Amino acid sequence: MRLGHSVVVLCSTARPGIVPEKEMIGGVKVLCMPEFVGRRARNGGLGPVDTLMRCAYLLGERFDVVENFDHRPAVLYPALVAKYLRRMPLVSEWTDLHGAGGSLSHRPRLTRGIIGPYENFTERRSKKLPLKLIVISNGLRQRAVALGVPEAKIVLIPGGADVDNILPRQREEARKEFGLPLDRKIIAYSAGTLYDADLFLQTVSKIQKARADVLLITTGSRLSAEQKRQLEDPARIVEFGFLPYSNYAALLPAADLFIFPFSNRPLNVGRWPNKIGDYMAAGRPTVSNRTGDLVELFHTHRIGLLADDNPQDFARKALQMLSDDDLCAELGINARKTAEGHYDWSILTKRLENCLVEAIAESNVSRDRTV
């Protein structure tokens, strides 16, 4: 919207309902289609009413370009309507590996049996349909090429950093706001889904055992009682859960160091962890693993240290950082500069705009040739 375009976003409703919900957010028209199935299906792109309503909406509207986000029914089938019935240029985003080797492998067996064939088939076949395919990581770019997508169609746009709202303010200020101790070393982690739970828990335990002054704070998903028992000292963890975004942004600078277990496996190679942009914006260093695009990010910009995929080396790297205030400060400054210079959402938004404009131009050329 800031670039002068008119944008409509179709999304799933947060609450079951029978009528569409309309809202203007920052000049963007957000339209939530009605749905009455359960939350997991409704918000997982599986709602049948939602899907049909989006298809009907696109049949009656005309856009310069349509973009679909991954391949669940609520986005894929409306995209097909736009492409084949309304002849509108289509751009697709591939933001995670969902099928075999990806998030599907972490779902219950019954769920894998029900949606697995669909996930695997549509994830592969749908990537050849758009004029442009936006991928979030080099791992997905390589998979797209292996599927037969021409490299000229593929555009790499990673997740960004919210440098406007997440600021590297003083630790003491952030800690006082959230009631955190001023005399502790604080390591922090944010998680929607904790895919590398064992590596995370074992690493934290070794850090706690080595230093009694280290406190762990987390946001997002909370640890289960069983997981907490695996820690050396469960009392030295503060879980904030899912916070309002403004609180989340204000909390991050309270940390001395972010830890991010990210083992080298297909699921992780195929995604870009959006939390790394938040960590960089907060101006704090990170310890993570040698996985996917993080290797180039850390080596090029020196925003932290990379560890082997084992808790011993991970804890060793974290303890090294906690024992060297000068190194932490230097890498934290690098992180903020990297966020501002390379991952600011305004920079990545311009790349997205260029991709959409190119798709429109290619569609016009193709249309002229068929006339």
Mean pLDDT: 92
Helix-strand sequence = EEEHHEHEHEHEHEHEHEHEHHEHEHHH
**Name of the CATH superfamily of the largest domain:** Glycogen Phosphorylase B
- Total of DSSP H or I helical runs spanning 4+ residues: 15
Give the strand order, joined by hyphens, for the main sheet. Answer: 10-9-8-11-12-13
In CATH, the architecture of the largest domain is 3-Layer(aba) Sandwich
CATH class of the largest domain: Alpha Beta
| Radius of gyration using CA atoms only | 22 Å
Measure the end-to-end span: 33 Å
Strand percentage, roughly?
Answer: 15-25%
Q: SS-based structural class? A: alpha/beta
Report the count of strand segments: 13
Shape: globular
Tally of domains = 2
Tell me about the largest β-sheet. Answer: 6 strands, parallel
**CATH T-level fold name of the largest domain:** Rossmann fold
Helix content: 40-55%
Low-confidence stretches: none
Offer a quick outline of the entry:
This protein is an alpha/beta fold. The protein has helices at 39-42, 48-59, 73-85, 109-125, 138-146, 171-178, 197-210, 225-229, 245-251, 266-269, 275-281, 294-301, 311-322, 325-343, 345-370; strands spanning 8-12, 21-25, 28-33, 66-69, 90-94, 132-135, 154-156, 185-191, 214-220, 237-239, 257-259, 286-289, 304-307. It starts with 7 loop residues before the first strand and ends with a helix.
